[in-house]
Amino acid sequence: MKRLWSMALCALAFFVPASWAAAQARYSVKTTGDVVQLRDNGTDTTISVLTPVNNAYEMVVKGQNVIRMAVKNVDEMRARPGLNGVPFLAPWANRLDELGFYANGKKYNFDMDLGNVRGPVPSQGFLSGTNAWKVVEAKADANGAWLTSKLEFYKYPQYMAQWPFAHTITMTYRLSGGVMEVRTRIDNLANEPMPVVIGFHPYFQLTDSGRNDWTLSVPAKVHWLLDQRVIPTGETEASTKFWGTDDLTKIPLSLKAGQRLDDVFTDFTRDAQGRAVVSMSGVKQKVAVTLGPKIKTVLVYSTAAPPPPNAAPQGPPPPAAGAVPRPAAPAPTPVSVGPPIPFSATKGEPAPPERGFIAFEPMVAITNALNAAQKGQYKELQTVAPGAFWEESFWVTPTGF
Fold it and tell me: Which of these, 73, 40, 1, 46, lies nearest to 338 by C-alpha position?
């Protein structure tokens, strides 16, 4: 009997660690130079992050990239991070209507000589290309894989000159169950309340169909009217009027065929946790973006799909007689230098331009919220008190890939 018990215990000792190791092996983290990759073997999903700019430039599911990329390799991403991947827009998202902003009843004018803010319509903040992020942690366990990075904004005089609120930003990309969570925390180190008007600018694509065949779900009651600068005027209309349908969960994108979208939506239908969901669907594929309660706005951006590749190319007009050719622009300085790293996508790339894209931009507030609030046109401006922090997430869920 004792011998049987010993054999049973030996068998248990043999199998338990093996099963534990198998559970652990579902998620992993790989660091190669300046790139960290989060891996979920259970759903065959890889998220790759260029760490100096803290930008997830790909989310690849079964060989297909959910994120539309305009660059062809990681070296191009290092040279032109811009609005590729999942760029972070801060200290403000989207546009401002003048060369300055209001906060706590005071006006702050930009120093245009610094070069990190460009006019006449300052756009997208000035952090999307910064290489000042530092990795805090890159780990995996039985529940997921994650990367946490931090930007100590207050240490950079050129940033503080434009946005005089000392703060830090901590961001975590987490991959669990095939879902990417992007969680952002802002700690206010200043002695005044700091307005929070950040956002993100991810471009999404479906690989089983083209733009005009996609169906959107944007369950927001309010669409903001825009001026010629694509800045809200303060007037709004029902979203159903803008889309031309009463069912905001099944909007045929063909209704906007040939049209550019760059539109701001608020007042979303939310669940008991205060979360809202926007999505795009193709034949079988779907990408859903879930917004945490503090993300009040989505900007939907998409350009009309270009003509099919058989159409006659439309090149630039020939130079005028005697015209002096412009010198080539200097090559941009890379944000970092690292080893050549192949993209993880093996199917459907590079994406044909005629496929199209949708950018669901999660934003804490509407475009120009700082100045619109000063004018009394916007009532939902969020702030973080001195010594306190603001924190929120959005989630990207691909299915059908």
Answer: 73
Each residue of 95-147: pLDDT tens digit? 999 999 999 999 999 999 999 999 899 999 999 999 999 999 999 999 999 99
Closest Cα partner for 341 from 27, 50, 40, 39?
50
The pLDDT of residue 70 is 82
Q: Degrees (nearest 5) of the Cα angle 372, 130, 199?
A: 35
Which pair of tokens denotes residue 71?
A: 């660059």
Q: Residue 89 and residue 365: Cα distance in Å, rounded? A: 12
Cross-strand pairs, 37: 30, 48
Give me the pLDDT at residue 313, please: 47
pLDDT of 393 reads 98
Residues in the chain with pLDDT < 50?
Answer: 9, 12-16, 18-20, 22-23, 312-313
Cα separation, 92 vs 95, in Å, equals 8
Please, are residues 210 and 355 in contact by the beta-carbon 8 Å criterion? yes
**Half-sphere CA count of 362, side-chain side, radius 13 A:** 28
In angstroms, the CA 47 to CA 315 distance is: 36
Under 8 Å between Cβ of 149 and 135: yes
Based on its alpha-carbon atoms, the radius of gyration of the chain, rounded to whole angstroms, reads: 23
User: Could you tell me the pTM of the whole model?
Assistant: 0.90
C-alpha–C-alpha distance, residues 145 and 246, integer Å:
40
Per-residue buried b or exposed e for 111-147, using 16+ beta carbons within 10 Å of the residue's own CB:
eeeeebbeeeebbbbbbbbbbbbebeebebeeebbbb
